[in-house]
Design goal:
By secondary structure, this protein is an alpha/beta fold. It has helices at residues 13-26, 46-52, 57-60, 117-120, 127-139, 159-173, 196-208, 251-254, 296-315, 360-379; strands at residues 4-9, 30-36, 40-41, 62-63, 72-76, 79-83, 88-91, 95-97, 100-103, 108-109, 121-122, 143-149, 180-185, 211-214, 219-223, 228-231, 235-237, 240-244, 247-248, 281-283, 326-334, 337-344, 355-359. The strands form seven sheets. The protein has a five-stranded parallel beta sheet, with helices on one face. The protein has a five-stranded parallel beta sheet with strand order 11-18-12-13-14. It has a three-stranded antiparallel beta sheet with strand order 6-7-8, with no helix packed on it. It is globular and about 70 Å long. Bound molecules: flavin-adenine dinucleotide. Flavin-adenine dinucleotide binds at residues 10-15, 35-38, 44-45, 47-48, 78-79, 104-106, 124-125, 155-156, 159, 250, 252, 285-286, 294-297, 299, 329-330.
């Protein structure tokens, strides 16, 4: 039987998980081509290690050259156009016509959506941004630090609060915490609305550390000359502004027409299967308009669903599994303490997200989470299948 080609665009959390699943379950039936313009994968949470744990960008990057999964071919190319109706994709090096197309290109940022932010703001949502902010913090000796969430949705809803708690610990360690005021401004009513327990724990942790939390407040712009944040009700002075930039789909998705019918410019998908309206075309992870937060663990769960859907289609069997939007998020509280929220968005009548309080055991569990992914995605051998 001739193998079907599965073209996966984007080798991030979702793309890597899908490639691994197809390699495990369908290596004899599909040829997987995995495309990404980068030469390696970096976990989202590793950006916090660049910022606060003295890790270099090279240390946290896992090179795609390590990917040795049977049936999976990695190509480092930049995707320049996608035609979902014909399943044709062009890159800077080649053209593809595929049987099955999976778009896993993640989310890009739009810092210019907030006037003044590109000129006078820092971010830690890219590896380069985290490295620049780390250098800026080295020079910081006191003053007001404002962290602003500039738009919703954004990747990993706990990440801004993790950064604040780690920032507090960092300034304490340097003996300059008393010289700094730390504020966070968010348009959301609480840190993690789906999990009141997690929100309460984060709000308490911030209050205990003297971090001023201002929910329900939209930031309109920054004044780079006077170092002022303009919110919808007032102005807030700052010495250092850190922003979570507005997120959007990568430009190549925008140009493909795939966002038609999706809310706020994300790709419309069937939430049960992650299929788009085009035959044989799926979208998973941050770029898809599925009713879950933007986080790697939900991209991973979406990849599992799509792998099962592809298998059912190939074998002509009914598809019984349904995307559950389930995932475990680890939350840094500083001083080596990590909490955990186990969310399930779609399998029950309403989302559930119980919280487990911070401990060093959970810090070990988080490290193990990263190790298992690295092993499963990059090098798990046939003998282990
Ligand atoms: C600070 C921070 C902390 C985080 N912590 C966590 C956490 O603890 N747990 C968690 O689950 N999630 C966390 N996240 C979120 C997580 O990183 C993302 O949600 C996740 O990576 C999304 O997976 P994805 O597959 O959709 O996209 P990505 O992992 O972003 O992968 C998309 C890939 O597409 C590639 N790409 C894009 N455009 C092109 C193109 N034109 N051509 C070729 N390649 C292209 C990119 O290079 C990228 O590799 C965190 C994020 C941040 C910023």
């Amino acid at each position: 039987m001739k193998k079907k080609t599965v073209l996966i665009l984007g080798a991030g959390f979702g793309g890597l998980e899908l490639a691994a699943r197809l390699s495990d379950d369908l290596a004899d039936e599909v040829h997987v081509i995995l495309i990404d313009h980068n030469d390696g994968f970096t976990f989202g949470f590793s950006k916090l290690d660049v910022l606060f744990a003295n890790h270099t960008p090279e240390e946290v990057r896992i090179p795609y050259a390590e990917l040795t999964r049977p049936g999976v071919e990695f190509r480092q190319e930049h995707i320049t156009s996608i035609d979902p109706a014909t399943r044709r994709v062009a890159t800077d090096q080649s053209d593809y016509q595929t049987d099955i197309l999976v778009i896993a290109l993640g989310a890009d940022y739009e810092p210019e959506a907030t006037p003044g932010f590109s000129e006078d703001g820092h971010d830690f949502y890219t590896v380069d941004g985290a490295a620049r902010l780390r250098d800026r913090l080295t020079e910081f000796t006191g003053g007001t630090i404002v962290l602003g969430i500039l738009s919703v949705p954004f990747k990993c809803p706990p990440a801004p609060y993790e950064a604040l708690l780690l920032l507090h610990a960092h300034l304490v360690e340097r003996g300059i915490r008393d010289a700094a005021t730390i504020k966070v401004i968010s348009p959301m009513p609480s840190p993690i609305p789906v999990s009141p327990e997690t929100s309460e724990s984060l709000i308490t942790a911030m209050a205990e550390r003297g971090i001023i939390y201002r929910p329900d407040t939209k930031i309109r712009s920054l004044d780079p000359n006077q170092h002022l944040v303009h919110t919808d009700t007032d102005t807030v002075p700052y010495d250092l502004f850190i922003g979570i930039p507005k997120h959007r789909v990568p430009g190549v998705i925008d140009a493909s027409g795939l966002t038609a019918g999706g809310s706020d410019g994300w790709i419309a998908v069937d939430p049960a299967t992650l299929a788009t309206k085009h035959a044989g075309v799926y979208a998973i992870g941050d770029c898809a308009d599925a009713p879950v937060p933007r986080a790697g663990v939900y991209a991973e769960d979406a990849a599992r669903t799509v792998a099962a859907h592809i298998a059912a289609q190939l074998h002509g069997t009914p598809f019984t599994a349904k995307y559950s939007g389930r995932g475990v998020c680890y939350i840094e509280f500083g001083d080596g303490q990590v909490g955990k929220v186990e969310a399930d968005f779609l399998s029950g009548p309403k989302p559930t997200a119980p919280f487990i309080g911070p401990s060093t055991d959970l810090a070990d569990e988080k490290a193990e989470f990263a190790n298992t992914r690295r092993h499963r995605w990059f090098s798990r051998s046939e003998a282990e299948r």
